[in-house]
Amino acid sequence: MKKKPLTPAERDWLAKLQSLLNECPSDRLGAYTIGDADIEIYDTRYESQINERLESGNVDFCSAVSDTGAGLISLKMPFCVHSTAG
Fold first, then answer.
1. Mind listing the pLDDT tens digit for each residue in 30-83?
2. What is the reported pTM?
3. Does position 1 have pLDDT exceeding 80, yes or no?
4. How far apart (Å, rounded) are the C-alpha atoms in residues 76 and 33?
5. Which domain holds residue 63?
6. CA distances (Å), 46 to each of 31, 38, 50, 61, in order?
7. The pLDDT value given to residue 42
8. Which of 52, 53, 81, 83 could form a cystine bridge with 64, CB 3.0-4.6 A?
9. 63 belongs to a structural domain
């Protein structure tokens, strides 16, 4: 299936969004989604504790972030953000 081109307004908005994201003032921010319109931002300085929690049993990434207190903020996107692998 051929992709439909972006409208000029969509292209401009996405370029502004990318430019803003490129200005991130920190290297500690990480992100994930569970497949809804939210992008969860967490503190990557907790990565080792998150991984320990994941390896300790039947827990998913978002629960491990919550359990370790690494969660920072939830960003609501104006569209669905699918959670996929690969």
1. 999 998 999 999 999 999 999 999 999 889 999 999 999 999 999 999 999 999
2. 0.86
3. no
4. 11
5. 27-86
6. 13, 21, 6, 12
7. 98
8. 53
9. yes
Please tell me the predicted confidence (pLDDT) of residue 2.
Answer: 80
Three-class DSSP category at 80: coil
Contact 76, 37 (CB under 8 A): yes
What is the total count of domains within the chain? 1
Residue 44, in any domain of the structure: yes
- Is residue 55, in this structure, part of any structural domain at all? yes
Task: Determine the number of helices (DSSP H) and then strands (DSSP E) in the chain.
Answer: 3, 3
With respect to residue 5, please indicate whether it lies within any of the assigned structural domains. Answer: no
Using alpha carbons, list the distances in angstroms from residue 4 to 7, 12, 67, 85: 9, 16, 42, 24
Average pLDDT score, the chain: 94
**What distance in Å separates the CA atoms of residue 86 and residue 78, rounded to the nearest whole number?**
24
